[in-house]
Design a protein that fits this description.
The complex is a heterodimer of chains A (149) and B (785). Chain A contains three helices and seven strands. In chain A, strands 1-7-6-5-4-3-2 form a seven-stranded antiparallel beta sheet. Chain A is globular and about 45 Å long. Chain A is an alpha+beta fold and 149 residues long. The longest helix of chain A is centred in the last third of the chain and has 30 residues. Helix content of chain B is 29%, strand content 22%. Chain B folds into three domains: 209 residues, Aldehyde oxidase/xanthine dehydrogenase, a/b hammerhead (Aldehyde Oxidoreductase, domain 3); 325 residues, Aldehyde Oxidoreductase, domain 4 (2-Layer Sandwich), CATH 3.30.365; 149 residues, Aldehyde Oxidoreductase, domain 4. Chain B is α+β, with helices and mostly antiparallel strands and 785 residues long. Chains A and B meet through helix 3 of A and strand 6 and helix 8 of B.
Chain lengths: 149, 785
């Protein structure tokens, strides 16, 4: 499955950059991420839950961030094992400035196994997009409130 | 002609089915019953480093948890493959895999708990440390260099190769051909989806050391033999009872010996409680053996006058991760033997490579090898007719085996018993109003509408089969059938058959046969099947064999009953046996010319049991059993004509007319026969237009539910105009041929031929199934639409 999204954020790029290295924020924008705990620099433990309709998969995952290019972006890899299968994926987050706004583009590819693959694969992309959109709305609101400043 | 054969007797099964009173395995409830759930692999290919069942075992309500090694240590045997080809490499398969999972759905552990919900919840607490391995998929692609091996000991993932035909004659035909038609076909993976999911239950009686297993099987005796001889040797055959009660559809997928049939009795004995397991639909998708999945490289040699002279097919058949019970048979013996179709083709060569992939095992599914044969042949025939500019019916007729050449020996082993293909096609043409149909098609085309007409003619080998022949070709058993008739002292009859009915209506048709053979009321006959304690032996139901083989066994038993009654009547009436008349209409037995002193069937039955006055040497009682081993297969055939219209804007296909002529020899119950034909046609349409079991590159089954796997529905279908010709089979006394699979075998190519015909203007000669609207839309929009 493939997930590509682009969001316009009414905040300066440096502030956005700092925020997307903040584990709490990352937890917000990664689709299905329930919690994120730093294990070491750029290496996190993530609890990820993917739910499509009645079908749910919960994965204990490791998230690694690499190729860090402040303030323009980084690469991430995620790999998780759950009781109903595994999930793996990777992608890039890129920031650019445009008319004083910050454009965040998110491009990721991933795979799931188990019941989600059998039953929900066709719907995962749509569900993922919805989750991301919700996450970004939360994020923007919190940024506007100065939560990550 | 008797009172019942050939008549539309209403099915005696239906009152209980339509009232929801069927007796299925899932309905079974026994005192103190526990429930089993099975952990299925989410991975297509992975090494099992460890399995931790502690948390599951500790859960409230869980009785025990077992893994593969427990069963192996506890004496279970490997899953057998009972049809093997020469030099067949058979992969090791255990009921629960101990070391490696090889397809999504592979069985890893079994939980037994107080109720079904606890058992399923406990699955989540089992921690399996999987080391995920790269997977291999694709019937032909899996043989490539560097592909992961499904089983380390089987090189290139090739389990077997098998060829049949006259290669020299075939080569010669292609050297001399005016036209060579070539096509590569992918005959897609299908998922059977019987309405009733598989289920199994087991009860151990420790005091008598007897085990009873209930299973949704098409052949309970074969399962009993497999268990006691191979997979569960701790229970000897005489202490093991296997019951397959009402079974809600099989289509081949319930022939095979499945892991749960071993796990359940093994567990029942360990926990000393009755146990039950019922598959979820999701489990059906990933554990029922699936169907088809061939890659076929085909070519046909044709002379310029339209004579087919050669057929050459190189095919790859995906067997999945293991060999299911009779899997090697399907793309080889049962498939290539039908490459002659309805035609005289001097040079035929077919060669199969059976391959392994990280997918659910593939085995027989309605038609089983014959739809794969008829599809490639009927596609090639259509393509040849088009290339030569001949009408597809005219082209077929030119190549038909004439009726005066039967029995006809094909170059691919079979001796066709009887047939009149010209008469059958004439009737199809007449019922369809073919000439008018073509004219209307022209008119529609002028209006820019995409109307297509598809024709198909096909034959199949049914009534499997002569024991020595199937033995020589790789089957471990014989394919005879057993039938027994017990006449009670009041003249009522219980008949026992080794055939199994899972929708076919044997309780009705077999009663019709017996009632006619004995001259009694059909309501006086009860047919018992599906229980190894009640029925002495049986080979079960598959390969459209029940009437031709199982029916014939009952005919033989009935004949023995008649012979005894004639002898008894002669004694009681003080006449010579030669002077005795047995009245087929009413079962009365009398001395020729003295009808008023006749003995009724009931009187004779009572006399046999009273034993007061029997001829010298005759034992009391009235019960006879017979084994019937057929001398040949039977060869039913059909001709279908279909009209479709393709929507130019959406690519959607609508079937506008469906005309089907079947010839299954003599007919016992026309209504049941038509039901079989309609069901078969619909299943074939399902393959042509909708169904596709898809695995992604990592071996994940992405069509693992009804959400993604499209089954045909009533609103996708036209009224099917079904009719028959009747060319009796000389292979059995009833003159019957198989009918269960013929509809499927013909409908798939007929529909595809029609759609390709509709798309004549788009430079398309073949489209791989299913013909989804997306696929058709892309063709229309990439070829000048």
């Amino acid at each position: 499955m493939k997930l590509e999204r682009e969001y316009c954020i009414d905040q300066p790029i440096d502030l956005v950059w700092d925020s997307i290295l903040n584990p709490d924020l990352l937890a917000e924008i990664l689709p299905g991420c329930k919690s994120l705990t730093a294990l070491s620099d750029n290496h996190y433990k993530a609890e990820i839950e993917i739910k499509v309709g009645p079908v749910k998969g919960a994965y204990t995952s490791e998230l690694t961030i690499s190729d860090i290019r402040p303030p323009s972006g980084y690469h991430f890899e995620v790999r998780g094992i759950g009781t109903k299968g595994h999930m793996s994926g990777g992608g890039d987050i890129a920031l650019t400035e445009k008319d004083g706004l910050t454009v965040l583009s998110f491009c990721a590819e991933g795979n799931v196994s188990g019941i989600l693959a059998r039953v929900g694969q066709r719907l995962i992309e749509a569900a993922g997009k919805k989750l991301m959109d919700q996450g970004f709305n939360n994020f923007q609101e919190k940024m506007a409130e100065g939560a990550y400043a | 002609m008797g009172n019942y054969i050939g008549k539309n007797e209403k099915r005696v099964e239906d009152p209980r089915f339509i009232q929801g009173k069927g007796r299925y395995v899932a309905n079974l409830s026994l005192p103190d019953m526990a429930y089993v759930a099975i952990l299925r692999s989410p991975h297509a290919h992975a090494k099992i480093n460890s399995i931790n069942t502690d948390a599951a075992k500790a859960m409230d309500g869980v009785i025990d948890v077992f893994v593969g090694q427990d069963l192996i240590d506890g004496g279970v045997g490997q899953m057998p493959v009972i049809w093997q080809l020469p030099e067949n490499k058979v992969p090791v398969r255990w009921p629960l895999t101990p070391d490696k999972v090889r397809h999504v759905g592979d069985s890893v552990a079994a939980v037994v708990a107080e109720d079904a919900y606890i058992a399923r919840d406990a699955l989540d607490l089992i921690k399996v440390d999987y080391e995920i391995l790269p997977a291999t998929t694709g019937a032909e692609a899996t043989t490539g260099d560097g592909k992961p091996l499904v089983h380390d000991e089987i090189e290139n993932n090739i389990s077997y190769t098998w060829g049949l035909g006259d290669k020299d004659a075939c080569d010669k035909a292609f050297e001399e051909a005016d036209h060579v038609i070539e096509v590569d076909i992918e005959n897609q993976r299908l998922i059977p989806n019987a309405m009733e999911p598989r289920a199994c239950a087991a009860q151990w009686t420790a005091s008598t050391e007897e085990m009873t297993v209930w299973t949704t099987s098409q052949n309970p005796h074969i399962i009993r033999f497999g268990l006691s001889a191979v997979t569960l040797p701790e229970i000897p055959e005489h202490k093991l009872r296997v019951i397959s009660p009402d079974v809600g559809g099989g289509f081949g997928s319930k022939i095979f010996h499945y892991p749960e049939e071993i796990i359940l009795p093994w567990v029942a004995k360990r926990v000393n409680r009755p146990v039950k397991w019922v598959a979820t639909r999701s489990e059906s998708f990933m554990t029922d053996s699936q169907g088809r999945d061939h890659v076929q490289h085909c070519k046909m040699a044709v002379t310029k006058d339209g004579t087919i002279t050669g057929l050459h097919v190189e095919l790859y058949a995906d067997m999945g991760a293991y060999l299911s019970s009779i899997a090697p048979l399907i793309p080889t013996v049962i498939c290539i033997t039908l490459f002659s179709g309805l035609y005289k083709i001097p040079g035929i060569w077919g060669h199969t490579t059976g391959t392994l992939t990280n997918t659910v095992p593939v085995d027989a599914y309605r038609g089983a090898g014959r739809p794969e044969a008829s599809f490639l042949l009927e596609r090639l025939v259509d393509m040849a007719a088009k290339e030569l500019g001949m009408d597809p019916i005219e082209f077929r007729r030119k190549n038909f085996i004439p009726k005066d050449e039967f029995p006809y020996q094909t170059p691919v082993a079979f001796l066709y018993d009887s047939g009149d293909y010209h008469a059958m096609m004439d009737k199809a043409e007449e019922n369809a109003g073919y000439a008018e149909m073509r004219k209307n098609q022209e008119d529609a085309r002028k209006e820019g509408r995409l109307v297509g007409i598809g024709v198909c003619g096909a034959v199949e080998a049914s009534g499997y089969g002569p024991a020595a022949t199937v033995g020589a070709l790789g089957f471990y058993g014989g394919m005879w059938e057993h039938g027994a008739i017990r006449v009670h002292p009041t003249g009522r009859v219980t008949a026992f058959t080794g055939s199994h009915s899972h929708g076919q209506g044997h309780e009705t048709t077999f009663a019709q046969i017996i009632a006619d053979k004995l001259g009694i009321d059909v309501a006086d006959v009860d047919v018992v099947h599906g229980d190894t304690d009640l029925v002495t032996q049986g080979m079960g139901t598959y390969g459209s064999r029940s009437a031709a083989v199982g029916g014939e066994a009952l005919v033989n038993a009935a004949t023995e009953i008649r012979n005894k009654l004639v002898e008894l009547a002669a004694h009681l009436l003080e006449a010579s046996v030669d002077d005795i008349v047995y009245d087929d209409e009413n079962g009365k037995v009398y001395v020729k010319g003295v009808e008023d002193k006749a003995k009724t069937f009931g009187e004779l039955a009572f006399a046999a049991y009273s034993g007061h006055s029997l001829p010298e040497g005759m034992d009391p009682g009235l019960e006879e059993a017979a084994y019937y081993n057929p001398g040949n297969f039977t060869f039913p055939c059909s001709a279908h004509i279909v009209q479709v219209e393709v929507d130019k804007d959406t690519g959607e296909t609508t079937i506008q007319r469906y005309v089907a002529i079947e010839d299954c020899g003599n007919v016992i119950n026309p209504m049941i026969v038509e039901g079989q034909i309609l069901g078969g046609i619909v299943q074939g349409i399902g393959q042509a237009l909708f169904e596709h079991g898809i695995y992604d590159e990592s071996g994940q089954l992405v069509t693992g539910s009804m959400l993604d796997y499209t089954m045909p529905r009533a609103d996708n279908l036209p009224m099917i105009e079904s009719d028959r010709t009747e060319t009796p089979s000389p292979s059995n006394s009833l003159g019957v041929k198989g009918v269960g699979e013929m509809g499927t075998i013909s409908s798939t190519p007929a529909v595809v031929n029609a759609v390709v015909d509709a798309l004549t203007d788009y430079d398309v000669t073949h489209i791989d199934m299913p013909l989804t609207s997306e696929k058709i839309w892309n063709i229309i929009n990439s070829n000048g639409g």
